[in-house]
Design the sequence.
């Protein structure tokens, strides 16, 4: 079964670019496919997009990684010049809808009709997870009419805040169902995240629920505060549980078309290990704080963890060759794809308590989250929690910054930069360097550079403003008449637009 799942995963990744967004199956009249297989295929497709496509772009935009100066595969990511017809934008959008969320919608219809509420909870979490990222990276997206196939070839483009409201309601409804009759053995092999453990799915759903609330906190403060207060009260009363383990896909093999999709797309399919290099923004932060996770995130060269300044990919090889000087991110064929880590869940709880004014509880969960991150990366934390990473005793902004900076580092493990990118857009952390224009291409940072502050790419195309979101793909702009209003914006303008929760 492991081999079958891995094959499904890679086939979805490689074939999705040939499909058009119009969903060719109507979930109201599903074909006779078992719900177990639909669960596997939907998880696999979402995993591919999250890791291989969005993970790569996000890791460049979060400045975890940089483009090597002796190759050119990802220059458009580091120069912020992706467009509506960029292959990865087309492919990821279509795969998420056509393969991931469409299969999941059929799955949801099937299990809801059978009142299989445990399986329904799984599908609800997958749907909320996928659509949160679609809204966070595209803004307004098809939701209510997205999966009606030939009945609705031009689906309504729903407002981002309305999609958020819908997925939050979906999660709460699914989490309230009686799952006592759920038969985990029926999903043990096909649930490639939790192996059919419905308690883990419920915990993941609650953690995702908290993430959805925090994302919109500034834009919808009263609602978010009320719901967070209830959620934390239920957690303290042990009426609900949040993640106490990683939500991860782990069934990969070191074989062609069966490996981790990020490794598969970047290294096996491209037949090189030289495209991705460490970014000086992250390595400077880790080194300044003597953070031992650096050895779990990067392979040094001659014992050094040099990182490239963003946009240094055109430095002549006569000056230096990055593969012989610059550290590389550690990617392996069997490394997990983390949908959410336990560390992230604890840091979400820390921010939630901070928002409610309980600094002591925020500190406790912050320390839990940082410790979990070190533990997962098998790194020694030493006295960092009483030293460089001690939770600030005062100042809301200082305390929030500490939490988000640790999410930023944690997301560098496994190429989850899309999450830290979104959090940077939401919170402003990591902060932007005040001296970007003084920093030269290469790997040497000036003495007045503050480690871990984002450097505007030396090849940036957005006028000094860091990107916020993705452009809509051509398949949506050209074939969905309801998306016509978005065609008036140039790609460069679109990626600087704010999504609904960013005030």
Sequence:
């Amino acid at each position: 079964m492991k081999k079958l799942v891995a094959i499904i995963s890679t086939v979805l990744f490689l074939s999705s670019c040939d499909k058009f967004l119009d969903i060719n199956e109507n979930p109201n009249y599903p074909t006779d496919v078992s719900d177990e297989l639909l669960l596997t295929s939907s998880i696999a497709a979402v995993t591919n997009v999250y890791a291989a496509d969005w993970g790569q772009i996000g890791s460049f935009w979060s400045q975890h990684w940089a483009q090597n100066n002796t190759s050119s595969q990802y220059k458009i990511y580091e120069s912020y010049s992706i467009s509506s017809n960029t292959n990865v934008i087309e492919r990821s959008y279509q795969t998420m809808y056509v393969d991931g969320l469409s299969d999941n919608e059929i799955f949801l219809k099937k299990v809801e009709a059978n009142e299989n509420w445990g399986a329904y909870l799984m599908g609800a979490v997958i749907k909320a997870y996928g659509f949160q990222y679609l809204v966070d990276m595209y803004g307004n997206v098809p939701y209510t009419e997205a999966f009606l196939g030939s009945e609705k070839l031009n689906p309504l483009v729903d407002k981002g805040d309305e999609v958020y409201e819908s997925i939050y309601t979906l999660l709460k409804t699914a989490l309230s169902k009686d799952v006592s009759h759920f038969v985990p053995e029926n999903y043990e092999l096909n649930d490639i995240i939790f192996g059919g453990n419905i308690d883990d799915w419920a915990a993941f759903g609650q953690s995702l629920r908290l993430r959805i609330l925090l994302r919109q906190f500034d834009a919808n403060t009263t609602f978010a505060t009320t719901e967070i207060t209830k959620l934390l009260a239920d957690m303290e009363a042990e009426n609900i549980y949040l993640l106490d383990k990683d939500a991860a896909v782990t069934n990969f093999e070191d074989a062609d078309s069966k490996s981790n999709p990020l490794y598969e797309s970047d290294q096996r399919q491209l037949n090189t290990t030289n495209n991705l290099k460490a970014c000086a923004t992250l390595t400077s932060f880790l080194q300044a704080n003597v953070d031992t996770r650096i050895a779990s995130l990067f392979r040094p060269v001659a014992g050094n963890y040099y990182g490239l300044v963003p946009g240094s990919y055109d430095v002549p090889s006569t000056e230096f060759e990055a593969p012989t000087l610059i550290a590389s991110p550690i990617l392996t064929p069997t490394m997990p794809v983390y949908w959410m880590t336990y560390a992230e869940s604890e840091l979400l709880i820390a921010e939630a308590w901070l928002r409610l004014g309980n600094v002591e509880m925020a500190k406790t969960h912050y320390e839990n989250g940082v410790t979990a991150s070190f533990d997962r990366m098998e790194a020694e934390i030493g006295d960092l929690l009483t030293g460089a990473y001690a939770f600030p005793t005062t100042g809301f902004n200082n305390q929030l910054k500490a939490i988000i900076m640790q999410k930023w580092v944690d997301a560098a493990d496994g190429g989850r930069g899309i999450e830290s990118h979104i959090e940077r857009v939401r919170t402003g952390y990591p902060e932007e360097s005040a001296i970007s224009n003084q920093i030269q291409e290469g790997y040497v940072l000036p003495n007045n550079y503050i480690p871990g502050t984002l450097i505007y790419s030396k090849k940036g195309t957005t006028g000094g403003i860091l990107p916020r979101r993705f452009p809509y793909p051509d398949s949506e702009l050209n074939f969905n008449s309801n998306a016509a209003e978005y065609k008036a914006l140039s790609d460069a303008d679109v990626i600087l637009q704010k999504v609904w929760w960013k005030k």
